[in-house]
Amino acid sequence: MVKTWDQLEELQPAILRMIKNSIVKNRVAHAYLFEGMRGTGKREIGLLLTKALFCESIIDGFKPCEDCHNCRRVNSGNHPDVHIVEPDGLSIKVDQIRNLQAEFSKKGVESLKKVYLISGADKMSVSASNSLLKFLEEPSAETVAFLLTEQPQQMLPTILSRCQILAFHPLSPQAMIKQLVENGVESVKAPLLAQLTNNLDEALKLNVDEWFAQAQKIVLKLYEVLEKNSLEALVTLQSEWFQHFKEKEQIHRGLDLLLLIFKDLLYIHLDKQEQIVFKGESERLKQFALKTSVRRLSIQMSAILGAKRKLEKNMNPQLMMEQLVLKLQEGSSFV
Predict the structure, then answer these.
(1) CB-based contacts of 302, cutoff 8 Å, min separation 6
(2) Phi, psi values for residue 223, rounded to 5°
(3) Nearest Cα to 201, choosing from 92, 317, 41?
(4) Sign (positive/negative) of CA torsion 146, 200, 2, 58?
(5) DSSP track, 35-90
(6) Of 149, 180, 144, 148, whose CA–CA distance to 1 is shortest?
(7) What are the pLDDT digits (tens) for 146-170?
(8) DSSP letter at 161?
(9) How far apart are CA 192 and CA 131, in angstroms?
(10) What CA dihedral angle connects 26, 29, 30 and 32, to 10 degrees?
(11) Cβ distance 312 to 266 under 8 Å?
(12) Residue 145 bridge partners (DSSP)
């Protein structure tokens, strides 16, 4: 989904301000490293600056028009002087970088300008990184590189030193909610999605995902039975939780949902009900909140975070969840 300058400026105002100054003053760097979480607009802003470099009808000296032949070709991925490199499987291989270098050794098809964008730059193999380093050390005056990464610490320091680094900040939940509602998500569902992901496309997929809808029901049920007795909670784990949350990523998602329930209960206690994210369950949550305390909720949230750490260290998921349920019921810490 193509975003305009004004739309992206809402998401990353500081980044767009720096880029505007670079374009207006004709000081565009030969290489940029965009680092930040997935969904923060790194790719979109890389393509936006690319369009500004090629645009035939630039607006106000810095905004691409979005309508000219070049802007349309960049948007469709068909511009002959714009090259995008994606990981091939789990990594970016040396042959991909060599092919890129071969392309850039040729004269630009329509001008001297050339742009390349490497998505997941931290996934370059060692040989690919070394090959790119030689490329960065001898930049053409008309060549601009965009390296996109979520993990700059995984990249060679010598590559980082040759790039202008721009840090993309996570979107505020309010900005994410606004985007979701504008894209057709019900306002009652948007706050929960905005807490779970910073990526608009991922949030939109979750919104229509049957697995995710069922996950919410199971997590709410687990909370309800936690307040009854340990046997019923353990039965729910066996009959529903373990049947639905099978992969590690799915279990993390379930724990995130469970944590958000406890956070909602805490907000109710603190009289900040406007911040709850399970909007459709607000009346039930108010009833749940009557049966607990701020201190107990704090301990229980710590228990869930502890469980997520255990899962990351590859603790047996079934044992981890059984221990967590018992800890949540007694309200003690899970370290």
Answers:
(1) 333, 334
(2) -60, -45
(3) 41
(4) negative
(5) E--TTSSHHHHHHHHHHHHH-SS-BTTTB--S-SHHHHHHHHT--TTEEEE--BTT
(6) 180
(7) 999 999 999 999 999 999 999 998 8
(8) T
(9) 43
(10) -140
(11) no
(12) 31, 116
Structure token pair of residue 194: 């905005």
- Read off the tokens for 44: 């979109």
The pTM is what?
A: 0.68
Instruction: Count Cα neighbours of 127 within 13 Å in the Cβ-side half-sphere.
Output: 5
The residue whose two tokens read 């704090």 is 298
User: pLDDT by residue (tens digit) across 55-111?
Assistant: 999 999 999 999 999 999 999 999 999 999 999 988 999 999 999 888 877 766 667
In three-state secondary structure terms, 151 is: coil
Q: 164-167 and 82-85: which strand pairing?
A: unpaired
* C-beta of residue 218 within 8 angstroms of C-beta of residue 274: no
Give me the residue label for tokens 């899970």: 334
> Given this model, what pLDDT does residue 198 score?
82
Joined together, the tokens standing for residue 148 give 């996109």
Q: Which two tokens stand for residue 292?
A: 């607990």
Q: How far is CA 134 from the centre of its chain?
A: 31
